[in-house]
Amino acid sequence: MAPKKIAQTVLTEGKFYTISAANGKVIEVADYNIDNGAKIQLMDNANFEWQQWNFVAAGDGVYRIQNRFTGKMMDLDMGGVSDGTRVHQWEGAQASSQLWVVEPTNDGRVKIKSNLAGKLLDPGMATENGTVLQIWADVNGDNQFWTIDEVTRKPKTSVKATTVKAKAAAEKAATEVVKAAKKLVDLVGADYIVSVGRGISKDVEGGIKLAHELADVLGGVVGGSRVAIDSGWLTADHQVGQTGKTVHPKVYVALGISGSIQHKAGMSESECIIAVNKNDTAPIFEIADYGICGDLFKVTPMLIEAIKAAKAAK
Ligand SMILES: Cc1cc2nc3c(=O)[nH]c(=O)nc-3n(C[C@H](O)[C@H](O)[C@H](O)COP(=O)(O)OP(=O)(O)OC[C@H]3O[C@@H](n4cnc5c(N)ncnc54)[C@H](O)[C@@H]3O)c2cc1C
């Protein structure tokens, strides 16, 4: 059945858009920076600023695609790979490799084509964290169609609330702030921290429970990577890293955390780092004193039992 024809998004400079692939995933600045820019991946999570793009007109129907979060432009990796050409983000904004043509289709989606190479943007090879974007010569794969949606903001609540209502709301908010403040986790003063990352995503509740159990037997607290905070699994006071807390515990346990530059910025000075990750090439192992390659859901209960046994033996 032919796809239903729907209205094409009209691109307007100064507005922000999400760019989603046929599989519904949203283009995002990658999790980790590399020397010459940040890789671009497709991620499941939506609505974060690093998943928002501005189409800057650079000629008739030609755009530069700029990330809202970093301000960097989407760019062909001129190094090239045998089966396509990778896409990166780059500081420099004027190169012709940063020019893209957004070609409408008849079903509301678009093709995003390099003005330089004529190749189409495509999700390319799958990786654990998402999909590295490449551009490909083939032109008809469904994964070469993209949906561009303007970022819609939640409507602002009416400012016509009565003084009484506003006062009651303010009192309620103040009580909640006080309650929340009491519960804030003291990461900076903690000697033992057990942090969780995206690795718990297949069973978030179970993963957080394990982290708390491990933290409890160690006498420590639970922290998290930014993914854990942005996904709503932990509150912001738990975040370790560049835009979170910088910690110096005696022991830092990283469960299912890859070890991005931004995460390491907040915990690399820990006295002892223990990393549990199922991927033996995860960057966290580069700074770990003890690295355990395995499934955190299997390894963490063993750690808990081993610590309990060691304590009991004392
Ligand atoms: C300006 C900026 C500031 C940032 N600030 C911060 C910050 O303060 N703190 C921060 O943390 N991040 C920050 N980030 C985000 C950072 O780049 C990464 O996105 C984030 O650290 C990745 O979190 P993660 O390691 O949990 O997820 P991922 O990178 O997705 O890693 C998940 C890891 O879990 C492993 N895994 C999956 N399943 C299992 C399993 N069952 N058992 C064991 N391992 C498993 C995977 O192998 C993978 O290595 C910032 C980014 C930017 C651009």
Concise overview:
This protein is α+β, with helices and mostly antiparallel strands and 314 residues long. 22% of the residues lie in helices and 28% in strands.
Low-confidence segments: 154-164, 177-182
- The averaged pLDDT comes out at 82
Helical fraction equals: 10-25%
Sheet/helix structural class: alpha+beta
Count of alpha and pi helical runs: 6
Overall shape: elongated
**Rg to the nearest angstrom?**
23 Å
Major sheet, described briefly?
5 strands, parallel
Strand order in the largest sheet:
15-14-16-17-18
Describe this structure in words.
- The protein is an alpha+beta fold and 314 residues long.
- It is 22% helix and 28% strand.
- The protein is built from six helices and 18 strands.
- Helix 5 (284-287) links the parallel strand 17 and strand 18.
- Helix 2 (204-218) packs parallel to helix 6 (296-313).
- It is elongated.
- The protein binds flavin-adenine dinucleotide.
- Flavin-adenine dinucleotide binds next to strand 2, helix 3, helix 4, strand 17 and helix 6.
Q: What descriptors fit this protein?
A:
5-stranded parallel beta sheet, 314 residues, binds flavin-adenine dinucleotide, single chain, 28% strand
Q: What is the strand and helix layout of this fold?
A:
Layout: E1 17-20, E2 26-34, E3 37-43, E4 53-59, E5 62-67, E6 73-76, E7 85-90, E8 100-104, E9 110-114, E10 120-122, E11 131-132, E12 134-136, E13 147-150, H1 163-183, E14 192-196, H2 204-218, E15 221-224, H3 226-230, E16 251-255, H4 261-267, E17 272-277, H5 284-287, E18 290-293, H6 296-313
Parallel strand pairs: 14-15, 14-16, 16-17, 17-18
Antiparallel strand pairs: 1-13, 2-3, 3-11, 4-5, 5-8, 6-7, 7-12, 8-9, 10-12
Helix pairs in contact: 2-6
This protein binds flavin-adenine dinucleotide.
